[in-house]
From TrEMBL:
Protein's name according to its UniProt entry: Calcineurin-like phosphoesterase superfamily domain-containing protein
GO molecular function: hydrolase activity
Residue ranges annotated for the Calcineurin-like phosphoesterase domain, each copy included: 108-306
Superkingdom, taxonomy of origin: Bacteria
Length: 418
């Protein structure tokens, strides 16, 4: 039985579904556009009486609907969505994101994405990487870095927000420490799209992070080089995905309707990160978009596949192996071959040969590799670095620099401004 429209608390109790009808007016400074303030949730529909056959039938229906709006990258849609977000930030639309100035030599940022924090069960991709992630955050906190979480921080397509908060208190507390020092920015992705809304943010994130937490769609870091502004644009990378990035209604539908229905029906449709041909296609489209921007680098996540200066990590390893073989460096050959085998298992099915000529596009990779490794992008000391943190067999967590380049070198190769 559905109750009438009423002001209500956000609830993720299982098993429930959310629907239109519960009027919630938000008054936060970062509130959504006015027409979205009135309708976020509805009263709860008790789904306990549904039998397994009915649930299976509903699941098949929902999956068919999902396939119609699947995460297949559409170049025009990706270009349009990224351009609109980029322009809104540069025009000072702070509800979309911030323009953050930094010093070319002194600025320090660590960018992680796609933790997909879960509930420590068999489906939790973050479980094996949690210790390495916490150790890495301690290092960056101690060394004065600003932490940028670039989306899909929590896995809210498969888990209830309250459960994710319960099982991930240590890593969340480690992130919150950065905010207390005013060194924290959080971007939402498609798997944690619920944080786009004020009500769930207040109920689930605010108790850990405090009232100062804001969650944005993107961020622009800006510095000066050779007398000109140069920028680093950051977004999760799901922009242009019909299922997760459309108009205000579709965003609301994914967060308020699709997510809890998916949880209840135990639906796990393939995401972009599990479809390797789409991963490469999406990375190529984002690179092609980034080349258009004058004096701008673009860093995203979403695909779970690290890319440095428009060349993915497998391509980099392959080139390093070619050089090691030419030099007859047996130690390097052995190490690189082992690393290639590990990463090719992660990226099985890679078929595209890319020709990304300009060093405009970077991807953080993810913090949920099956071997417990995490990757991210550092910006520090005038360099940008693709880094990996590993912790094996309860040994000390180890940081490795996979790739690095001076920012001035990259800026010199970018398209000049008009």
């Amino acid at each position: 039985m559905i109750a009438g429209p009423r002001t209500c608390e956000f609830s993720d109790s299982q098993p429930t579904a959310w629907a239109l009808g519960c009027a919630v007016r938000t008054r936060a400074p970062d509130r959504l556009p006015q027409y979205e303030n009135f309708y976020y949730l509805v009263a709860q529909v008790n789904l306990n009486p549904l039998s397994n056959p009915i649930k299976r039938a509903l699941a098949r229906l929902v999956i068919r609907m999902s396939d119609r709006l699947s995460s297949r990258p559409d170049k025009n849609a990706v270009f349009k969505s990224l351009s609109q977000l980029h322009d809104r930030i540069l025009k000072g639309k702070k509800d979309s994101g911030l323009l953050v100035p930094f010093d070319l030599q002194q600025g320090r940022f660590i960018i992680f994405s796609d933790q997909h924090k879960g509930c420590r069960d068999a489906a939790d991709d973050f479980k094996s990487a949690a210790d390495a992630y916490i150790d890495a955050l301690q290092h960056y906190y101690d060394h004065g870095y600003t932490l940028i979480n670039l989306g899909d921080c929590e896995e809210l397509w498969e888990n209830k927000p309250s459960a994710v908060m319960q099982y991930n208190n240590p890593p969340l507390q480690a992130e919150a420490r950065f905010l207390q020092k005013k060194r924290y920015y959080r971007i939402f992705g498609n798997h944690d799209l619920e944080w786009y809304y004020v009500v769930p943010r207040r109920q689930f994130l605010q108790p850990l992070f405090g009232k100062k937490l804001r969650v944005y769609e993107g961020l622009v870091l800006q510095t000066q080089y050779n007398g000109n502004a140069h920028r680093i644009f950051l977004a999760h990378g799901h922009q242009g995905d019909k299922r997760s990035d459309g108009n205000a209604f579709s965003k609301w539908f994914v967060a308020a309707i699709w997510t809890p229905v998916q949880r209840f029906l135990d639906i796990h449709p393939d995401t972009l990160a599990a479809s390797f041909d789409l991963v490469d296609a999406h990375n190529i489209i984002m690179y092609e978009w980034s080349v258009q921007l004058p004096r701008t680098l673009f860093i995203s996540g979403h695909t779970h596949k690290p890319v440095f200066a428009s060349l993915d990590h497998i391509d980099r390893l392959s080139k390093q192996l070619e050089r090691a073989m030419a030099d007859n460096d047996q130690n390097a050959i052995t190490a690189l071959q082992a690393e290639l085998r590990r990463r090719q298992e992660e990226y099985a099915g890679k078929q595209f040969v890319k020709t990304m000529a300009f060093p405009t596009y970077f991807n953080t990779g993810c913090c949920c590799f099956s071997d417990g490794d995490i990757t991210g992008i550092e910006i520090a000391d005038g360099f940008v670095r693709l880094i990996k943190w590993s912790r094996k067999n309860n040994t000390a967590t180890h940081r490795s620099v996979l790739e690095e380049a001076p920012l001035y070198y990259l800026f010199d190769q970018l398209q000049p401004g008009a």
